[in-house]
């Protein structure tokens, strides 16, 4: 434990941010999993459901970038990879 007050405050802030960041990252993971399941179970019959799920994942990723949980380039890379899956 640090004796310097600024360090203890920094540690408290880090723990608080860790909890908040985890919330956004878990939301992205859940939305991505739902999207991948919809693509896998789709059989090219209902593309509309896949696009809705993709849109939800995009929303979660953009929200995380806005809250500075993810870097904008990381978000772009994730979105690109998800879009590539639906094109195949």
TrEMBL record:
> Where in the cell does this protein reside?
Plastid, Chloroplast
| Entry keyword annotation includes Ribosomal protein | yes
An example molecular function term from Gene Ontology annotations:
structural constituent of ribosome
Please give the organism: Sonderella linearis
This entry carries the following GO cellular component terms, namely: chloroplast; small ribosomal subunit
Record GO biological process: translation
User: Family, per the entry?
Assistant: Belongs to the bacterial ribosomal protein bS20 family.
Look up keyword Ribonucleoprotein and say if it applies.
yes
Indicate what this protein is called per its UniProt record.
Small ribosomal subunit protein bS20c
User: What keywords would UniProt list here?
Assistant: Chloroplast, Plastid, Ribonucleoprotein, Ribosomal protein, RNA-binding, rRNA-binding
The protein's matches in NCBIfam families, at most eight in alphabetical order, are given as:
S20
Give the gene symbol: rps20
Function in brief: Binds directly to 16S ribosomal RNA.
